[in-house]
Design brief:
This protein has 351 residues and is an alpha/beta fold. The chain is built from 16 helices and 9 strands. The longest helix has 21 residues.
């Protein structure tokens, strides 16, 4: 019989899950409207055309769990020994919405909803705010509101915003605001934009299986190579899914980036103060969401540092009790395991 999973720290650590999703009904309703009226991109049609309409057990369970910020979610956490969940609005947030006023309203109301849930269950829920990067100045103000009025511990942005990436100068107010409040940015995947999704979608590889990681890893690399951490040296950016594969490519990334800088092959590829690997060890934080795999976790701890790798479940998209048991059973020192499950999250989210 499998060992019961319990909260309370009986294993020597609390389990803090750092990439857990919720949705609001009006957010999902806008996704469905965009699918119906033809304004949704191919990724939204593929992703939310399934989750929001399919009668399959997986889709209906995920929708029910996304929309719950109360007792049902807490019961699921209790059943898998999750002491605390760091919650953010599910991907793609409000970023695909073409009506910017509508996007900002839905984002603000989602933030209010999340703040109320965190206030109701302060020992269990921790909030990351959402923004509408379509309006960078409004997003900056919402970051300040989240930090100063709503009790949030950072923000989540779901990768590209209608094909635009955060390395564009227009998004600098978002980074200025994060610097002002001293909070991290979590870059969560979205389905790739239409400009890159074609071969993935025809092979069924556009979502979490592959497309998410490829697109989000590229986003982080764009930010590193444009010099975001030279401009904001204290900024911390988090990514999930074991770093979207970047830790495993670091040797080649560094070699080819430095070769490209020396060759002056690309106009935007300028010399940086550090190597890509050094930025990964000083400014990038990684969660294992969706990757309950001991060899990958250990490798990542070795490459970026044991203080920079944190536990996540990826609820409700990947809710598997045996994955928690596998993480409990890792061949790892008690000190390192406590960092992984608890104290790294407490440090970086300032809990």
């Amino acid at each position: 019989m499998s060992e019961d999973l319990k909260t309370g720290g009986g294993k020597g650590y609390l389990r803090i899950a750092t990439e857990e999703a919720f949705a609001t009904r009006e957010q999902i309703d806008v996704f469905l409207r965009m699918i119906r009226d033809g304004t949704a991109d191919k990724g939204m049609v593929s992703l939310w055309g399934f989750y929001a309409t399919s009668p399959s057990e997986r889709a209906t369970q995920i929708m029910d769990r996304l929309l719950d910020l109360g007792e049902a979610r807490l019961a699921d956490m209790d059943a898998t020994g999750i002491d605390k969940a760091i919650l953010a609005l599910t991907s793609p947030g409000v970023q695909p919405m073409l009506d910017v006023g509508e996007a900002k309203g839905i984002a603000a109301r989602a933030n209010d909803t999340l703040a109320a849930a965190c206030e109701k269950y302060p020992d269990r829920f921790i909030g990351l705010g959402t923004v509408a990067p379509q309006d960078p100045e409004w997003s900056a103000a919402e970051i300040h509101r989240g930090a100063k009025e709503l009790g949030f511990k950072g923000i989540q942005i779901n990768s590209h915003t209608q094909g635009e990436y955060l390395d564009a100068e227009k998004f600098d107010p978002i980074f200025r605001a994060l610097s002002d409040v001293g909070q991290p940015l979590y870059i969560h995947p979205a389905t790739p934009p239409d400009s890159m999704i074609g071969p993935m979608i025809e092979a069924g590889l556009d979502g979490a299986i592959f497309g998410f990681g490829v697109e989000t890893g590229m986003h982080l690399l764009r930010l590193i190579t444009i010099g975001i951490f030279d401009k904001y040296p204290d900024l911390q950016i988090m990514v999930g899914h074991m770093g979207e594969a970047l830790p495993y490519w670091l040797y080649r990334l560094d070699y080819m980036h430095q070769a490209g800088v020396r060759a002056k092959r690309y106009e935007r590829m300028k010399p940086l103060k550090k190597t890509i690997a050094e930025y990964m060890r000083s400014n990038v934080l990684i969660t294992n969401s969706g990757m309950a795999w001991e060899p990958a976790i250990k490798f990542c701890q070795e490459v970026v540092g044991e203080d920079r790798v944190m536990y996540a479940m990826d609820y409700p998209y990947q809710y598997v009790a045996d994955e928690v048991r596998a993480m409990d059973g890792m061949d790892m020192s008690a000190e390192r395991k406590k960092k992984f499950f608890q104290t790294n999250a407490e440090r970086w989210f300032r809990l």
